[in-house]
Write a structure and sequence with these properties.
The complex is a heterodimer.
Chain A lengths: L2 H6 L4 H19 L7 H9 L11 H25 L10 H9 L11 H4 L7 H20 L4 H10 L3 H26 L4
Helix pairs in contact in A: 3-4, 8-9
Chain B lengths: L20 H6 L1 H16 L5 H8 L5 H22 L20 H17 L3 H9 L5 H18 L7
Helix pairs in contact in B: 2-6, 6-7
The chains are: A mainly alpha, B mainly alpha.
Chain lengths: 191, 162
């Protein structure tokens, strides 16, 4: 297997997981920074002058590193998803494929169903509501809970923080409720 | 509105980031670390909406394997850094802050986050990676996330945290 194949074909969990775990000490050793992505959303809001105390701080000094990290993720997404794009369609578990088919959502080989996450889909106002509403919950929930998957599930648990475990359980309760109770209602019918 | 209680997330900045030219160059390592993370996120397919669906339907081990092994390695690394009293590259001591021991915010905020995660199939890291990977529709998700962040900031003092 050539280097290009290794860089463009999917990595198993036991390669990717430990590498993601190493992000924690990498950022600590770089400058005593804790791995967490959702804070970048707060720093981005803090750039806009406002009277809201939550956004009144020196975003450059406090969040500059985090915004640079977030920008890096976009670059990494481009390198992995475009320059070294996997030529093969995404493989999805048969049971999930069947469950989604029952909801009218097809597995189309991409990272996310085109019926919801493509520019063409944006002609449907319902799709705007889903993308904006889902994003809103992610942004609102991450700040309310003081962290997201990286800040709580990876960093918080690595630092043995009980509040992070509570937050992660909350993530799962919300995700299960969405997947099993609300999603059929939201995308049900012809998606 | 009064200022929030001491907020560790925006506590006094440390020495290595500023607005000077040196400060901007000092951000480069973080840009590269983000690039590395974004690449791994794409290659492991944790950015895929379908992988999140597999996870919440308990139909694949992949996401559990990724998160579980990341936590194991992260915890081991943190333990070593603590034991060796390691310092960062520029010589500062490394801090291990404790999360505030209140619960309501973690339960309610966590559940709200989970609802969004289950719907758009992406948490903040993957949202950025997907935009870079050529799925501009996730730019709309990002706008939603910024609006949600803004709304939390505006409502912070009216929400139960304790």
């Amino acid at each position: 297997m050539g280097i290009f194949d290794a860089l463009s074909s999917p990595w198993p969990w036991y390669v990717a997981g430990p590498l993601i775990g190493l992000t924690v000490p990498l950022l600590l050793l770089l400058g005593d920074r804790w791995f967490g992505v959702s804070s970048s959303l707060r720093h981005a809001c803090a750039i806009i002058p406002s009277r809201i105390p939550f956004f009144r701080y020196d975003w450059r000094a406090v969040g500059g590193w985090n915004l640079a990290f977030a920008l890096g993720i976009v670059v990494g997404g481009f390198v992995g998803g475009v320059l070294f794009a996997n030529p093969e369609p995404l493989q999805v578990a048969a049971a999930t494929t069947a469950d989604l088919a029952a909801l009218g959502v097809s597995v189309d080989g991409g990272f996310a169903p085109e019926a919801l996450f493509s520019l063409a889909a944006l002609s449907d106002p319902r799709v705007w509501a889903i993308l904006l509403g889902g994003g809103f919950l992610v942004g609102f929930g991450a700040r309310y809970a003081d962290g997201c998957t990286s800040g709580h599930a990876i960093s918080g648990l690595s630092n043995l923080q009980l509040p992070s475990l509570v937050a992660v359980i909350g993530f799962f309760v919300g995700g299960l409720a969405m997947t099993h109770l609300l999603l059929p209602w939201i995308v049900g019918g012809p998606a | 509105m009064d200022a929030p209680r001491r907020d560790p997330a925006t506590a006094a900045p440390r020495s290595d980031a500023g607005t000077s030219a040196r400060g901007w160059i000092g951000l480069l390592p973080y840009l590269l670390a983000g690039t590395l993370f974004g690449f791994i996120a794409v290659r492991s397919e944790i950015i895929a909406w379908y992988r999140i669906q597999e996870m919440f339907r308990f139909q694949s081990f992949h996401m559990y394997g990724v998160i579980g092994s990341a936590v194991l390695v992260g915890a081991l690394a943190v333990w070593i850094l603590k034991r060796t009293k390691a310092r960062s590259w520029s010589g500062q001591p490394i801090h291990f802050p404790d999360k505030e021991r209140t619960w309501t915010r973690y339960v309610l905020g966590g559940a709200a986050f989970g609802l969004g995660w289950g719907l758009v199939g992406a948490c903040p890291g993957p949202i950025y990676a997907l935009i870079g990977a050529g799925l501009p529709a996730f730019g709309v998700v990002l706008v939603g996330a910024l609006l949600g962040t803004w709304t939390y900031g505006a409502l912070q003092h009216r929400l139960p945290h304790g």
